[in-house]
## 1
Amino acid sequence: MSSPLADRIRPRELSDIVGQKHLIGEGKPLRKIIESGEIPNLIFYGPSGVGKTTLATYIAKRTNKTLKKLNGTTASTADIRGIVEELNTFSGMGGILLYLDEIQYFNKKQQQTLLEFIEDGRITLVASTTENPYFYVYNAILSRSTVFEFKPIEPEELIPAVKRAAKVLEEEKGENCTFTEDAIKQIAHSCGGDVRKALNAVELCYISAKEGGSGKVVDAELASELSQKSSFRYDKEGDEHYDIISAYQKSMRGSDPNAALHYLARLLEAGDLPSACRRLMVCACEDVGLAYPQIIPIVKSCVDIAQAVGLPEAKIPLADAVVMVSTAPKSNSAYLGIFKATKDIKEGKSGPVPRTLQNKHYDGADNKNPGQFYKYPHDFPDHYVPQQYLPDNIKDAVYYEFGDNKNEQSFKAYWEKVKNS
């Protein structure tokens, strides 16, 4: 069985690696480190298919160290000990470069097993992870390593790789196959910045290509059929999940319905209806709030409809609600108010409920001024009467301040008139 195309055409020179110019472009720090030959412990962080393994393999070839590979999903502590034991053999005399893929799956004990050896330089660790290392890699490893973040590849950078892959397949198979320019662009734009996905799509297109007059032909239609589902990344447990739902809510808060609909579509295409509904309701309450309080039951109704009909129809009521939240006036006055009140509670700024508000209507014999003295607001003009509601030691605290929107300003004007009359 032949290896995947992505492995068969893996770049052998730094200049052939696609993308990551912010790391390995001329004069960039990581390039300088690699060219110096003095390789520290490294952690490569970024989505799959963007060159982490390729660069680690290249680094290994530039060193005189023995290359060992482990994958965090399958390796055990015994595998680590086996590598450590080689340090005292002929193969380990020049040191060992350990490429550890998916380090986030190593538990604390497994990572600690490496510490002594990566600290004294006998093992050089080059680890990769698709998850944020500051959350998933233990501090002891992080403090001994330098983290570099890899980015998704831009479509324009992928086009040369797609063309190269098509040429390699022609040479391997000995059969002419023409990829149209539109087909190449379709593959480059629809793989979500993942080189491996792009190359897999090239191979599938080659196998499925239509016969033409002078060989096979891959057109945009075929490329679209075989690559259309690769256009976005999403992992409900990974960083991308939190990035998308964060962008979704911030787009609604920022009153950009186009961006909000884009992120809603990404959530729903991934089947993540619960996150789409939850963040939508939170945004209606937190970010629109009292500027248009009627929106809260409207959004809840749209969410109820979406959950009742399910996908794909759920996207219709949710789109209605998302556009409404995005274009509605905004106010976070109530949100700020409860935040300030909660902060006081956590800091111990509280006290006994005033006697006038307590749920009891009798006094002990030691009370020299018996009586509750509660004033029923509905017995007074405009259903209002001044009296103290907060505990004594925070009686002058102000948590809520009227927002500058039309709705809250009308309430403010009303109460100023009532309270000053």
Note: The chain has a mean pLDDT of 85.
## 2
Amino acid sequence: MPTVLQVLPRLGGSGGVERETQYISRAIAGAGWRSMISSGEEADGEAAADAGARHAALPVARRNPVQAPGTIRRLARLIAEEDVDLVHARSRWPAWLAYYAARRAGRPFITTFHGAYSTGAAPMKLKRRYNAIMTRGARVIAISEFIARHIVENYTVEPGRIRTIPRGVDLAAFDPARVAPDRLAALRDAWRVPEGLPVVMLPGRLTALKGHLALLDALARIEESVCCLFVGAGDANRAGYRARVEQRIAALGTAHDVRLTGPCGDMPAAYLLADIVVSPSLRPEAFGRVPAEAQALGRPVIVFAHGGALETVLDGETGCLVPPGDIDALADSIRQTLGASPAERSRVASAGQAHVRRNFTLEGMCGATLDVYRELLPASS
């Protein structure tokens, strides 16, 4: 029975890295293997157990070069004592630690490239070397074709080591037939969504990169009144951005009803409240979970045409691809989608659901990841 250890900074969040780690952990356990997760938080033990994994809390999230040798030794000891067969790193600093620990223990090491890492404020050459740890895996999983191209274009890695595995949508949860009407009613009441207005939704954290201001600028160009819902958590460190959003909402006056709902624990029901889901990310998304989930629920999507969105959205079939930053085009797409006939809406809904079922299922993502593990595990496993 092989044992797979996944390493990441923390597990308890709701981001794509955390969710994918838990999905893969359940798939490992479902295959009859043994799953382990190491993160930097003791509190992550419950989430790991829910995902069928044994948790080991180690200081893998602390970017402290002085502590790194000790953490590498502890991680290598864990690998040896638990007879781990393969180590899978999902973030850069934990990857540096896991790489040397796996090498010390003589175990295969793989990575998942979850984003197009920037060079940041540090000297470009130094930051690129820091990022390049994610290319040292015997296999490097890219979560989209966009990320696979980014790896080849920016780092020295043989294309034969790259495996492109798109993120998967849990179709058992994101299925309109499984969302009871009372769940929609509860959200409608909690968010005070007015009857009779079409709903335009932007799901995502309240950060500038998600494009809230771009959507508000587009709504200012639309004559028909809408209810606009910004669904996602804010951040105390970004209070200034929230204030800018609120100022822009106030500038719209009564033309549109705009709500900042905060985080939502029932995203399938949230998507079903929407007539349109908009994802105008200012920077290319590595994959773009929002468009995929919205399409799984039969909702038309409008996105800026860069990054993973070029793979998740079929322009004119499942939604609209808008030139990045083009506010007039964004407004036109919203206007046209709101004016679509019931037959056209039904066609787009069916096309979006079929697109997700063909390309972005949870089963497909998990099965392909286990296949990558099998490439490196001993034949006896």
Note: The CA atoms of residues 1 and 33 lie 5 Å apart.
## 3
Amino acid sequence: MLLKNQIHIDKILSLGINGEGIVKKDGFVIFIPFCLLNEEVEYKILKVTKKVAYGKLLRVITPSKDRVNPKCEVFTKCGGCQLQHLNYDSQLNLKSATVKDSLKKIGFIDVDVPTTHKSSFEYAYRNKLQLPIAEVDGQTKLGFFATNSHRIIPIKSCPIHPDWSSKIIEVFYNFIQQYNLKGYNEDKGTGLLRHLVVRSVNERLIITLVLTKNAFPYKKELIELLKENFNEFTLYFNINPKKTNAILGEEFVLIYGNGYYEYEVLEIKAKIDAKSFMQVNDFVYPKLYEKALSLIGDDKDVTVIDAYSGAGFMTSLFAKKYQKAIGIEIIKEAVDCADALAKENGLQNKMENICANVEEVLPKIVDNLKKENKKIVLTVDPPRKGLDRFSIKTIKNADIEKIVYISCNPASLARDLGLLMGTLIDENGEIKKAVDVKENYKITYIQPFDMFPQTKHVETLVCLEKI
């Protein structure tokens, strides 16, 4: 019988979708983070459910040839990275295998998945730093949250961020100590400082300090300190007084600088400020977007519906190349950014941005375009939960010839593709394997992209074409 706090020695049989090692013992599947395939490990049981258990790695007895020394001193403690102990080529293979296995086990789709497209940089690739600031035992700490918790792990540097991040951390930590500033206490709702958010735009920094109230007594001192350490920056205060897990509040106050920086990628110009959305890996996302464009094709006489369009960057790419692009996004601030992007690039007549739920407006948009005999290509880039079931039904009924799907979650991707392709059925809200497969679409392209090296996360680009 498997019990909590027991210590065992076993061999890792396989790896899970989060990169953790898997052991099967006494009828249980045991997940142990930071283990690699075929390693013999000693571990402690932390939690036992009916058929699944979770363990903590104590030591590696027989290490894998793919094991490497992590660069981060708080790896395994911080919740940011899961794969720094695995060499990079093996990380790419693992992510491809995760996509393939998810498609097969969840969606009953057996397809070859190529090696994940690598990032130009294995480390120092993130253009955005986001650090909680909290009161811990009466002291203000700045760092990252531990896995599945809001417990702060203090840090001095983070190797997946560029060098500027270490300087930012040092400057703000010293400033906090010098003026005895109080971090946020979630339980009491006290403290002034909640988060530090920094975006690098071509090595120019947009710094946002998130406060519980607009009453910061040391503005001038902070500005002077930042001037001493950074050549070009702009500084915002964001006010978030609510008891919430949301990082940012609604109010932004520009404290220093122009408030934005101009940025251009793939011939799209943008003004990036504290509210703007950008992908965090400047070395990978342009390649993913270029490939998405190529999958839509060279026929300029098409209308692209860009569902879950976010701040409109892809929508603007589609509008620039094709007859028209229609973006659908529920978050108003993102739609406002998309409208600004359209204006900045002279695309107002070719780019329409709609603030609404995809499932509510997609049927009407498709119906209207079909009445006008427009050629339609649908692109979707949903959140981790994937497509809404009503949206999937709408897409299938619309008889759209081509769908380009960008996914950040292999599990929801597998489910959605299964429903679209016909290998899964939705029976009164319960998703089941189809007995008689009626093929609707086929996969004509699939490619994972490593937007987040050293982590479990993977972006996958898929093209479906009507059979």
Note: Residues 88-105 form the longest helix (18 residues).
## 4
Amino acid sequence: MDLGLKGKVAVVMGGTTGIGAEAALRCAAEGCKIAVCSHNMEKVEAFEKRAAEAGITDVLVEQVNGMKAEEQEAFADHIVKKFGRIDVWVNCAGGNKHGPLYTLPEETFRYIIDLNLTSAFLGIKTASKYMMEQKSGVIINLSSLSSKMPVGYRVTYGAAKAGVNLLTIGAASELAPFGIRVNAVAPGIIDTVLSANAIYEHTDYIMSMIPLHRAGSPMEVGDVIVCLASDQFSYVTGAVIPVDGGKNSMEDTDLVWTTPWKG
């Protein structure tokens, strides 16, 4: 199936590893020119090597701190100078530092909010500047199953992702008159570095709570992101799509993700 992405320019913030990398590579496979960034230079260099090995030539990879407006804006300027436009912008940067709320330092709380929510806000603001001029574009934010149900010792992360959901819905309404669609994907347990400890320390417990009885892969989330970016989803905006093996549909959520804190 032709997704109508050939020749378009896709940007993935936090796109050098995990879900972001798979989304970027899937966009490239559909014929997109891709721009990817990370705050970590080693990850930037690793993705450059991976893209070269895959034969991807229309690519821009830079070191960018997505929590800083000036760095996002400079990155966007470099993209437009190289490729001429921005058609798809994926806010995939994120992460967490676990801990009980009563011991969580204020600076850690602010860091988690900035990494997951502020960076998405800045991405929407940066991308929309160019998309509003061209009267078209797609913005996709990375949310989480944690945004809709309690997760023990990860409450700040869930709060930030809940903010991403509302930010998505609000931006979709504001940007629709300019031909810009804004959606989010909300992964559950995905086999990435972020979820590794939960998967491998509590495998049986966690998998028993997922209807498909397995963790998802970054590629499976990347596939959903690419579909949302495509013309096939041209009437979908303001949606938060769960990619969680059916966990979102279950009712007994109160105790599901709470496991003993080990410090």
Note: The first strand starts at residue 9 and ends at 13.
